[in-house]
Amino acid sequence: MGRYVFKLPDVGEGTAEAEIVAWHVKVGDVIHEDQNLVDVMTDKATVEMTSPVSGKVVALNGAPGEMAAVGSALVELEVEGAGNVKANGGAPVKAVPAKAAAPKVEAKAPEAKPAPAEHANPAGMKAAFATRAEGDKPLASPAVRQRARDMGIELQYVPGSGPAGRIGHEDLDKYVASGGRSARGGGGSSYAQREGVEEVKVIGLRRKIAQKMQDSKRRIPHYAYIDEIDMTELEALRAHLNDTRRAGQPKLNVLPFLMRALVKVLPLYPQINARFDDEAGAVHRHAAVHIGIATQTANGLIVPVVRHAEARDIWDSASEVARVAALARDNKASTGDLTGSTITVTSLGALGGLATTPVINHPEVAIIGPNAIIERPVVRQGQIVVRKMMNLSSSFDHRVVDGYDAAAFIQKVKALLEHPATLFMD
């Protein structure tokens, strides 16, 4: 038997280190070639690391949330044959400088704790399943925890079928189907007091988002501008195009029309389609319009990029928005899919918001946010009429974009959206 050390490879983009997000194996597991070992993250892209060999896991280096340097040892395996480490357990055959190697922390398999036969839940009902010992924290992803909170279910009483008792969505479904009930329902008082504090370590994508938002607000003096737009004519056009679209064409929402308006107006305001390197003191104005599409996923807010929006019609724009958003939601977006945007669009209109003050996606200098379209009475030529109105929110980096220019830019976008035929005129 030999020893094989799997090291963190270069994941591209000149990355020197990556964050360990989640382990998919534990010490003692016998794994096969190409099996997923660990998820690591860099620059908001999560990468699955698979094993190049088959063997038995004897050590894992690093815990979720810790940073691992490129070239440092992640997993040690016992394999058939010589492996890639000397038989006496010394340094790997291809030596790595000591400073590049991460400290070895051998993980120990958790000791099983006997679960009590019965355990009363907070509502006073005995749990329908065997539960964890008092004080044992249930393991679950942020998405599962959020769903459990929405359902009013205490994860303490849900048995997990995953590694180390990890709870998945299917475990929640089985719990409810088998007679488990939420803490808010099923005969218990809806006014019962709730106790306890759950500590959630901020790691992975959530930490990247937190760092980026903090950096953006700390470095960028935001200038917010909101105006209302009469979307009645555009909504009529959109409905007509959706009713008459050909097979294979996507259903249109407001975003492709807004994207078309942006690419027509941005050449007049090149300082807005830009990225500001404030450390170098240089604004990089881009001819191409690469639009970031803020997308809510189970793991948090991600911004995939529609490249060269200026060369796309509304149908192609809609298809590309759907494609990159699906990649982001399915956690399949590459680093290239998530970088290089020159301006970002973020929309909460589907939730009914009237106005927002969006945070700029640093190092960009502008972000545009359409809100809900609402029928309301307005005055037109001295008459009160019902129109479909939408507030368009925006934020600009005041170091680069003057308030006058920001307002003039939005006014031109507004004019195009209120007279949608002009979107298609050269």
CA-CA gap between termini? 71 Å
Major pleated sheet: 6 strands, mixed
Number of strands: 18
How much strand content do the residues show? 15-25%
Number of domains: 3
- At the first level of CATH, the class of the largest domain is Alpha Beta
Count up the helices.
Answer: 7
The CATH superfamily of the largest domain turns out to be: Chloramphenicol acetyltransferase-like domain
Spatial order of the strands forming the largest sheet = 9-18-17-16-12-15
SSE ordering = EEEEEEEEHHHEHHEEEEEEHEEEH
Low-confidence stretches: 88-130, 182-188
The radius of gyration is 27 Å
What is the fold's blueprint, element by element?
Elements: E1 2-7, E2 17-23, E3 30-31, E4 36-42, E5 45-50, E6 55-60, E7 67-69, E8 73-79, H1 142-151, H2 169-177, H3 204-219, E9 222-230, H4 232-244, H5 254-265, E10 274-277, E11 282-285, E12 291-293, E13 295-297, E14 300-302, E15 305-306, H6 314-329, E16 343-345, E17 366-380, E18 383-397, H7 403-418
Parallel strand pairs: 12-16, 16-17
Antiparallel strand pairs: 1-8, 2-4, 2-7, 3-6, 4-5, 6-8, 9-18, 10-11, 12-15, 13-14, 17-18
Textual characterization of the structure:
This protein has 3 domains: 2-100, Beta Barrel (OB fold (Dihydrolipoamide Acetyltransferase, E2P)); 110-199, Dihydrolipoamide Transferase (Irregular); 220-424, Chloramphenicol acetyltransferase-like domain (Chloramphenicol Acetyltransferase), CATH 3.30.559.10. It is 22% helix and 25% strand. The protein contains 7 helices and 18 strands. It has helices at 142-151, 169-177, 204-219, 232-244, 254-265, 314-329, 403-418; strands at 2-7, 17-23, 30-31, 36-42, 45-50, 55-60, 67-69, 73-79, 222-230, 274-277, 282-285, 291-293, 295-297, 300-302, 305-306, 343-345, 366-380, 383-397. A hairpin with a 2-residue loop joins strand 4 (36-42) and strand 5. Mean pLDDT is 84; it is low at 88-130 and 182-188.
